[in-house]
Amino acid sequence: MYSKEQASQLRQAFWTAFGQYMGPVLSAEGLRTNWVNYKTGVKHIFFRMQADNKHASISIEITHPDKELQQLFFEQFATYKNVLQNTLNENWEWQLHTTDEYGKTISRISTEIAPVSIYQKEDWPKLISFFKPRIVALDEFWSDAKYAFEV
C-alpha cells in the first residue's frame, strides 16, 4: 500500500509521462495540444481521462448545472452518435443524469478498462495504449462536431 504522498507522486509521474509521450502528437487541426488537460473550448463539456488502482476511463462529461440544458447537450451528442462511434471504432456507454464522485449531476459518454492500476508501472503501457487512440479520436471527432455545440 502506498502513502497518500507516494500515490500522488505516482499519479503525477504517470500523467507527466503520458503528456511527454503525447507531446509530438498534433491535433486533428495540426496544432500542439495539451492532451492531459484537453480543452474543448465549450463551457461545461470536458474530455476526461481518469485512472486509479482498479480501472481507467475516458469520457465526455457534460456538467451544465441546469439539468434541462445538460440534457439538450446530451441529446445533441446523440445526434452525432454514429459519427462518434465510427471515429472511435467502438461503442461507449451513454449515461444521462448520473452522479460524479462529488455528488454532482452530470451526463457522461464513456468507456473503461479493468483491471489496471496507475500505481503499477508495469500497467502504464496498457494505460497509454488505452488513452492515446481514444483521446486522439475524440479530438478528431471534436474538430468537426464542436461548432454545433458553441453557444
Question: Quick summary of this structure?
Answer:
The protein is α+β, with helices and mostly antiparallel strands. The chain contains four helices and four strands.
Write the layout of secondary structure elements.
Elements: H1 4-22, E1 45-51, E2 56-62, H2 67-79, H3 81-88, E3 93-99, E4 105-113, H4 124-145
Antiparallel strand pairs: 1-2, 2-4, 3-4
Mind explaining what this structure looks like?
With 151 residues, the chain is an alpha+beta fold. It is 41% helix and 20% strand. It has four helices and four strands; from the N terminus they run αββααββα. The protein has helices at 4-22, 67-79, 81-88, 124-145, and strands at 45-51, 56-62, 93-99, 105-113. Strands 1-2-4-3 form a four-stranded antiparallel sheet. Helix 3 runs antiparallel to helix 4 (124-145). The longest helix is centred in the C-terminal third of the chain and has 22 residues, at 124-145. It starts with a helix and ends in a 6-residue tail after the last helix. The mean pLDDT is 96.
